[in-house]
Amino acid sequence: MPDNDTTPAIEFQGVGKRFGDNVVLDGLNFTVAKGDRVTLIGPSGSGKTTILRLLMTLEEANDGLILVDGKPYTHEIRGGKRVAIPEKRRSLVRRRVGMVFQQFNLFPNMSVLENIIEAPIHVLGIPKAQAVARAEDLLEKVGLADKRDARCTQLSGGQQQRVAIARALAMEPEILLLDEVTSALDPELVADVLGVLRNIAETTDITMLIVTHEMQFAREVSNRVLMFDGGKIIEEAHPETIFTSPENERTQEFLRAVL
Amino acid sequence: MSDNVQKLVDLLPQLGEGILVTLQLTIAGAVLALIIAFGLGLGSRARTRWARVPSRVVVEFFRGTSLVVQIFWLYYVLPLPPFYVELDPLACGIIALGLNYGAYAAEVVRGSINSVPTGQWEAATALDLGGVHRLRRVILPQAWPLMMPMFTNLLIQLVKGSALAAYITLHDLNFFIGELRKGTTDTVFAYTVGLLLYFVFAYALTLLMNALEARAKHKVGQGPSLREVLRLTPARTAGTEVRS
Shortest Cα distance from B4 to chain A (angstroms)? Predict the structure, then answer.
């Protein structure tokens, strides 16, 4: 992407999401510039994960528009009405967005390598030899080159999560969503996973949206922090600012509890 | 007693024929049931009502009607007006078994697919794997080992259900037992042999299915390999897997 491209990677316009009577997001507006590393913080139930799930089309927004690279993703306005965009068109945007989950969600019926090459071959149409070479590079990058042919069930949680990161990167996403990727790991395995992510942040220009409870990691990797409460952004600042001198009282309270 | 055994030996060719017919009913019935199970099981999960409603109706109908009546209906009613369809008795047996057990198995297919953790669906979506591909490469390989123990149950029931074929003129295992009784005039002997024959038949299938189950589980990284399971015990985690 050219440096002067100022189209936001992600834009939420008045996005609302309800689960029954429970309003999770309420008229949410925000933009994420290309190459931004944004950490979403806030108490559980504040809608952070829902934002990632909306971007992955795992949930459907009730109102508003989500734009990726300036173009409507799941819904668009046609003739003054909000209409759903058909699956075929969504799919073209979705493949540019990657996600890493709290529970890894590797496919247990496939080997490590097969997990990584499945989508590049079948979704992007990359020749197998090329996909395998790229997968091997990525495994190298996450420090698991020797686990190429292992079964996922034989790996530790930290190793599984690093494979999941490699799997997401194999799609060469422009946007990477990280949903509490260290929450399910034993404490001693967290550092490896965070190290891999730090490395990705330093060596690529992938736009990253991060939901995490690892405040130190958020501080090192992200250039913007959004504090959520009740489905709204209540404070937004550079990590140094928000972690040292938060303005909002709710933010202060939250950070006191987690830091 | 030795007369009885002598008679049994004399009737061995008929026993062979009986086993063959029961085997035909079982295998063809099971294959048909499997096809119907996947058709109706996937159909009843479809997003469009045009697939879901008919699938549900067919499943409920064939689950809810007696196998005996279904077999007799195919054999005695179909040739009558207004249908005029005359089926070979073997075909009647196979179709009835396939429809009846296929309807049960459709529920197994549906339930097992629903039991695959949501995270697997979500990860496949996140990689933009489309509907059919996701099902074929990610979901079904994981649902398959969940189906196996329940398929084993249904297959054994299907074997026993196939005994009804004797009542539409087929010379199956059940028919042979009748012949043995007439030949020996010893009811106790004939029906005891009958029990044993069906038991051996069903048990052989159980062993085969246990092996397939172990293989399926091993492929998703659970449990021992096939070799370890050839010890004639059910696969280690069979019971708990189904409930979870």
Answer: 53
